[in-house]
Write a structure and sequence with these properties.
three-stranded mixed sheet, alpha/beta, globular, Rossmann fold, 332 residues
Length: 332
């Protein structure tokens, strides 16, 4: 990426100003860092409801924000002269099933507030991530198309469909430049699991390095689409910067690789030979069984040039290397 890139804005060069909600989440923390590297620390405002980790305050501003508070949200957008809003606040799949009411309020009501604020203030762009959880059992599970029936069976999936439809409505009705990515499972060496069904693909690395053993809560042959965090960040920034005139769609499938717990364990064993994985499926299994096994992201590739950089072997080697450094464990 060209970290010094500037953008034409009202006939002059001006660096975009970005606000990220849910900045301390799995994606948010690393996204804020990537955006600050690209646009400058002072131009990326991180927000959240809790005391932030040091990484969110060392290179740029952090503001405590409850996205359910419309007045506070609008004031912050105006005070910081925000151009782009990336709304990452979300209750994830497994956590959502434990408290569906909270998931609806957190996911949908805050997204409505964000879209309304964008309409009222006139923001350049709004990015609200979606998920493969938006699909359901009636969706083709192999090579799932971008445009297909979406009847999810989890509250998380229901909220994501609602957000997609609401965003598309605001784009048509009010000309809000809404954009969304249907993220697959995201694997990060920095962020800990946050209550998602695909979290096994992060936890397995920690347990492999620390204990040489992991018990998967998904069956060994459960295939799901996944993406390594560097590709997740790349896809997000690529879509934010895509030319709106070239976008036919507003919501995009995006993926990098699909694998099963057994395939991931086998790849880890190539680096950690004495690693052992066993399988005891729990309530996560029913959720995973309603999701796609693989994703067709050809629409994203066509409309804004999406292309991932990491496959399963490359991701596995990089994850283990970074986690060993993070956990101060000797070895390559």
């Amino acid at each position: 990426m060209d970290l010094g890139r500037q953008f034409v804005y009202q006939g002059k060069y001006k660096m975009k100003r970005v606000l990220v909600t849910g900045a301390y989440g799995q994606i948010g923390t690393e996204l804020v860092e990537a955006l600050r590297n690209r646009y400058g620390g002072e131009n990326v405002i991180a927000t959240g409801r809790r005391k932030p980790p040091a990484v969110l305050t060392k290179d740029g501003p952090y503001y405590r924000l409850d996205a359910l508070d419309m007045n506070d949200l609008q004031r912050l957008l105006v005070d910081y002269n925000i151009d782009i809003l990336i709304h990452n606040v979300s209750i994830l799949s497994a956590a959502g099933e434990q408290n569906p009411q909270l998931a609806w309020e957190t996911n949908v009501q805050t997204s409505y507030n964000v879209l309304e604020a964008a309409r009222i203030i006139g923001l350049d762009k709004v990015m609200i991530p979606s998920s493969i959880a938006a699909f359901g059992p009636s969706t083709p599970r192999e090579n799932t198309p971008n445009d297909v029936i979406m009847r999810p069976t989890t509250i998380y999936g229901v909220t994501k469909v609602a957000i997609e439809l609401l965003g598309e409505y605001y784009a048509r009705k009010f000309n809000v430049d809404f954009r969304s990515l249907r993220y697959p499972g995201i694997i990060s060496s920095e962020a800990l699991p946050g209550g998602g069904t695909t979290d096994y693909a992060v936890a397995i690395f920690y347990e492999a390095i620390r204990n040489k053993h992991y018990t998967s809560f998904l069956a060994k042959d459960t295939r799901l689409p996944m993406m390594y965090m560097p590709d997740c960040l790349k896809s997000t920034i690529d879509l934010i910067e895509a030319d709106s005139k070239k976008l036919v769609h507003r919501c995009f499938n995006v993926t990098a690789v699909s694998f099963t717990p057994e395939e991931l364990a086998a790849e880890i064993k190539k680096v950690i030979p004495d690693f052992v994985c066993d399988y005891k499926p729990d309530f996560h299994q029913a959720i995973a069984d309603s999701w796609p096994k693989s994703i067709d992201d050809s629409v994203a590739r066509k409309e804004w040039g999406w292309k991932p950089e990491y496959d399963l072997p490359a991701m596995t080697k990089d994850m283990i290397k970074k986690l060993k450094q993070k956990l101060s464990i000797p070895g390559k």
